[in-house]
Write the structure tokens for this entry.
Amino acid sequence: ELFLNGLASRKKEKSVGLGIRKDVLGFIVHIEGSVVKDSQRRYFYDPSILDKGDQIYYTKNQNWYPVLTAGFNRMLSEDSFLIFEYFYDRRGFQGREFDNFVNSLTYFKDKSTQSSDEYYTQSFSEVLGAYTPGTIRRNYAYLTYSHRLKKDWNFGLRALTSLDDGSGFIYPFISFSAITNCLIEAGGCVPFYAEPNSEFGLLPLEWSTMMKIKIFF
């Protein structure tokens, strides 16, 4: 199965891509590649070289970036299902770009705490707005496993890791689907990391729990 996709938005993000999906020895393998032009992605300067009032970020308007997703899914048994994906996005922070982001986050957080100056509070807001874990680096691996325990009960595990720094999160969950057109899911998210200044180490929590109720019409 071959497929083509494209995107154009008012936010000046454009993309075009090509993908293929094929059954290989019981594994549904898929590969999708695209190029993206994104003039909204912000990259931050080292705050130590900035003077008060300076622009704290820059964009790369002229560039097209490659994006790749590759993975597979497979039924392990009548009750078990596995999904694995690798994701690469050339727009993600790497090396000095990520260091500048972390330093900016720390610097402007401290400054906005110590001072009510609008420059520092606005700058901290801009840096914080760029922090969406699972999207800011270049290389990720994603895993989902689900297993039916009983007729209406399922146990599952989702995991995402940044291959650039080894940080990530694990999300075990249990779901209940006996109610018509309704799915109830409860789980907990636990980040893991070796360095606090890693992508998921920056999260201001050690763990969290959540409950979701989905109603279908």
About this structure: Residues 137-217 form one domain. DSSP finds two helices and twelve strands in the chain.
